[in-house]
Design brief:
Belongs to the inorganic phosphate transporter (PiT) (TC 2.A.20) family. Its main location: membrane. It is a multi-pass membrane protein. With about 400 residues, this protein is mainly α. It is about 70% helix and about 0% strand. It contains twelve helices and two strands; from the N terminus they run αααααββααααααα. A two-stranded antiparallel ribbon has the order 1-2. A hairpin with a 6-residue loop joins strand 1 and strand 2.
């Protein structure tokens, strides 16, 4: 007979997965939605499918390992403790989703497990230190890579790919037959179609990568405790992620796709490429990747690079040069435009502040991406340390 405690554990696990769908859909498909490449429902559907494929194929390896590397004694993962860990992960992620900020699922989950490990005196500090170092380094790398692209390559790249959207839709749906068939709309040009396919494909790759790592954040404690088998755990998690993508993810899609910045399609491709490359690199090293923060810093770095194009490095360092560092510097250059050298571009060509990244929204995102994991860590530690029920 299925115990009430196990049912509660599965429900809490699905609650965590639901919030994972809400917090990770924005970073994966926010650039594509912000560039009007796909709609929110299409982004949610792609998120659900790609996430499940990643979870079912590679994710089971991460599920097996997550409960054994951060703690030196896996005996702390009792069913009761697993439910408590999942509860803190879910509540912390819910806080971020309510504020419309896509919090880092990996940071939140690792924080909750670290709280358990600290309370029980079984936390592996070496493993934790390695993870934290990469969490600090990877957003900085994403920021500087994107800044360099924005300052030195973005304008010419935009002239090559010409990613401005046409007036009509990308596709028409032919409903004359039994099965609806999508066809390219007459106003859709080849470069627009190619750019759209690219940015959506990169979003799918990010969703797949999320499945390979983030499914463990929702089900690893239960699977590690032996209370739930691997396959049904992945199915439950995948269903909940999809529901979250169709519901609560709407706010994070707006934050990552339009509130922080109004991204042209060229910029969306750059942000998604830089973020997904870093995520894949970290995954290869076995580090739970925080691509939420990487994507955010990539957006800011790309815009800062474009904003400083009219200024030389010396001007930027001195704080002058005549041209203000505009926050609306991702405006597309004209196709085929003969670009002047760095530092000689007319500052009037850079629009007034307004649509690259909103400083208030960006500050809110960065703040909440640190607050949410802290909530999970502190709550988990205090509970396991002082509540006698868990017996640590």
């Amino acid at each position: 007979m299925i115990s009430v405690l196990l049912v509660a554990g599965v429900l809490v696990s699905m609650f965590v997965a639901y919030n994972i769908g809400g917090s990770t859909t924005g970073p994966a498909f926010g650039p594509a939605v912000g560039a009007d490449a796909i709609s929110k429902p299409v982004a949610a559907a792609l998120m659900g499918v790609c996430f499940f494929v990643g979870a079912w194929t590679l994710g089971r390896n991460v599920v097996t390992k997550l409960g054994t590397e951060l703690v030196t004694d896996t005996g702390v993962f009792t069913l009761e403790a697993s439910i408590a860990v999942l509860f803190f992960i879910g509540v912390a992620l819910l806080v971020g989703n309510v504020f419309g900020v896509p919090a880092s699922t990996s940071m939140t989950a690792v924080g909750a497990i670290a709280g358990l490990g600290l309370a029980g005196g079984v936390l592996d500090l070496a493993v934790m230190g390695e993870i934290v170092i990469w969490w600090v380094v990877s957003p900085i790398v994403g920021f500087w890579v994107s800044l360099i692209i924005g300052r030195y390559f973005y304008a010419r790249l935009n002239g090559m790919v010409a990613m401005e959207r046409s007036s009509g839709p990308l596709f028409d749906v032919d409903r004359s037959g039994i099965v609806p068939i999508p066809r390219v709309h007459r106003t859709t040009n080849r470069r627009e179609l190619g750019g759209t396919v690219t940015v959506v494909a990169i979003g799918c790759l990010m969703a797949f990568s999320s499945g390979t790592s983030n499914i463990a954040n929702a089900v690893a404690p239960l699977v590690g405790s032996g209370a739930l088998a691997m396959n049904p755990a992945i199915v439950f998690g995948g269903v909940a992620v999809t529901v979250g993508a169709f519901t609560i993810a709407r706010r994070t899609l707006e934050t990552m796709g339009s509130d922080i910045t109004e991204l042209p399609l060229t910029a969306a491709i750059v942000v998604a490429s830089v973020s997904s490359t870093l995520v894949v690199f970290l995954s290869a090293l076995g580090i739970p990747a925080s691509f939420v923060i990487i994507a955010t810093m990539s957006i800011v770095g790309l815009g800062w690079g474009r904003a400083t194009r009219p200024m030389t490095v010396r001007d930027v360092a001195a704080g002058d040069g005549g041209a203000p560092v505009s926050v609306d510097a991702l405006a597309a250059d004209e196709e085929g435009e003969d670009l002047p050298p760095i530092g000689t571009e007319d500052a009037d060509d850079i629009p007034e502040p307004g649509s690259l990244f909103n400083p208030v929204t960006t500050a809110r995102v960065v703040l909440m991406q640190n607050v949410v994991p802290a909530i999970a860590t502190v709550g988990s530690y205090l509970t396991f340390r002082f509540v006698p029920l868990f017996g640590l």
